[in-house]
């Protein structure tokens, strides 16, 4: 699964370092997970003035992501997991756990700080690329 910043980077920067992730989900080589909370955050961030996106552009970007994502309903209350130091990021840990994600891809320092509590789960985009390359080489 991908955190909001990774999704944004893949959608907004077609020549960026994470642009390959967009193609990976389009080709079904990577399966994003979303929940109500993470979609709400993505909607909020896409509407931020700093991106200068029109409503139509926001809809196009969402249409290039959401159809490829699996929707996971988070239980209430959330399962007890090690707590992220930024409580707004806890949803990504919960979603990865409930959705049984193979990886939580992030560049967020608060989530990356949780690696010891979630061995092998939390990766940067570059680490995911290396993992994908290694698995492709083994086929």
Automatic annotation (TrEMBL):
It comes from the Bacteria. Residues 1-109 form the PIN domain. Pfam families: PIN_3 (PF13470). This is Putative PIN family toxin of toxin-antitoxin system.
């Amino acid at each position: 699964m991908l955190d909001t910043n990774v999704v944004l980077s893949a959608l907004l920067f077609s020549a960026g370092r994470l642009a390959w992730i967009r193609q990976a989900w389009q080709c079904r080589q990577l399966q994003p997970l979303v929940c109500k909370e993470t979609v709400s955050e993505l909607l909020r961030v896409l509407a931020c003035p700093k991106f200068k996106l029109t409503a139509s552009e926001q809809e196009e970007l969402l249409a290039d992501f959401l159809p490829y994502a699996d929707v996971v309903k988070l239980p209430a209350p959330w399962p007890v997991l090690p707590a992220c130091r930024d409580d707004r990021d806890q949803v990504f840990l919960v979603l990865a756990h409930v959705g049984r994600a193979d990886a939580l891809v992030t560049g967020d320092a608060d989530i990356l700080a949780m690696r010891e509590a979630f061995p092998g789960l939390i990766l940067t985009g570059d680490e995911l690329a290396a993992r994908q390359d290694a698995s492709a080489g083994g086929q």
